[in-house]
UniProtKB/TrEMBL annotation:
Alphabetical list of Pfam families matching this protein: Radical_SAM, TRAM_2, UPF0004
Name of the protein: Ribosomal protein uS12 methylthiotransferase RimO
Residues given in the record as [4Fe-4S] cluster 2 binding sites: 167, 171, 174
Keywords on record: 4Fe-4S, Cytoplasm, Iron, Iron-sulfur, Metal-binding, Ribonucleoprotein, Ribosomal protein, S-adenosyl-L-methionine, Transferase
InterPro entries the UniProt entry points to: Elp3/MiaA/NifB-like_rSAM, Methylthiotransferase, Methylthiotransferase_N, Methylthiotransferase_N_sf, NA-bd_OB-fold, Ribosomal_uS12_MeSTrfase_RimO, rSAM, rSAM_horseshoe
Family the UniProt entry places it in: Belongs to the methylthiotransferase family. RimO subfamily.
Assigned EC number: 2.8.4.4
Domain of life, per lineage: Bacteria
Binding site for [4Fe-4S] cluster 1: 35, 71, 100
GO BP: any one term: tRNA modification
GO CC field: cytosol; ribosome
Amino acid sequence: MTDNPPNLRPDLARAFVPDTRRAGQPTIGMVSLGCPKALVDSERILTRLRAEGYAISPDYKGADAVIVNTCGFLDSAKAESLDAIGEALVENGRVIVTGCLGAEPEYITGAHPKVLAVTGPHQYEAVLDAVHAAVPPAPDPFIDLLPATGVTLTPRHYSYLKISEGCNHACKFCIIPDMRGKLVSRPAHAILREAEKLVEAGVRELLVISQDTSAYGVDRRHDLSPWKGGEVRAHITDLAREMGKLGAWVRLHYVYPYPHVRDLIPLMAEGLVLPYLDIPFQHAHPDTLKRMARPAAAARTLDEIAAWRAQCPDITLRSTFIVGYPGETEAEFQTLLDWLDEAQLDRVGCFKYENVAGARSNALPDHVPEELKQERWERFMQKAQAISEAKLEAKVGRTLQVIVDEVDDEGATCRTMADAPEIDGNLYIDEDFETLAPGDILAVTVEEAGEYDLWGRRA
């Protein structure tokens, strides 16, 4: 078992790919960087390749070619993607690049001219064409049968479920709309059918993701889809309600605090949806939010948070923030700290502002020196850590529902309803864990709390 503290850089994630090769089978390796949305893209690509008779390699070795799914959100993430491409070229030599950084092919080929092909985000057909050109398929129809659930890059007891692509926001620090386009929502019945199949295959937790989950269906004018003998609206409230009927945990990520989000809270209070909201607040000072081109409603947001907690006292709120944004004064930063004190968010991540090629924020005046960004980041995280520690200490003695992620010789690593995989904390059981297995959901009494994690015993 490994103590947190959680990695606050989701763009440094890695995917695990099981090795299912047969002798002589054409094999493709996969390196999947970036956020969970990119992970879903990788799963789609690998599912298509598996259906065409390719084996999937868990590493570079023995693969006939390697796909690197890149992240291009931050300059540091771009550099890390270039490093991964370079490593793949050294270890394998035959590399196909896709993902967000693929929207800038010259940036990639300028650093690594020997890559076989470069495609942009969610360009599945172009990736397949590049693989076909590099490694022709050789399917065996009697052996290469695709499992009904496709290829997954997460443990089988939880799965990310992407409900839309793109984003309609125009935040000055972000280039995701330029890379992934405007909001395009999937039909409601297609999402629900996928969710149903996942649950039937053993998934116990559905993690709903998109760039702006609460805007789901706006582009479709919240149209109706046939479902279960009736109709379901393309709206996040309706979608969440229907998913909640499937019997799995449903966790919502990347939810902007639009007024209609309050309609989700009764679903959480009823137990249909996990009492968990991942909301990218980014900052609290109205002037900073205005320079970011984000809604400047921090005070009203506090009112909304109070209303959510009044209706669902066990709700967990997670958010991410940016410190050191161009023009951020000490007074603006102090407003953010004061707001955090009042909001008492349960889970908090923080980035130091970075220029991103193509972002409008690069041209803003009064960029904050790096040493001051670091000093503010440390102050912010010190406060966030103290809030987290106090909130976890308040859970000692309570009995909570947890889901098991991993069991080894030392104990079981679990998560409560307040913890998303990879980004939040864990709950550890080090006694009476031998009969547990990943995906089990059980009651645990909390005995000890740390800065980010809990320890407990079976109730």
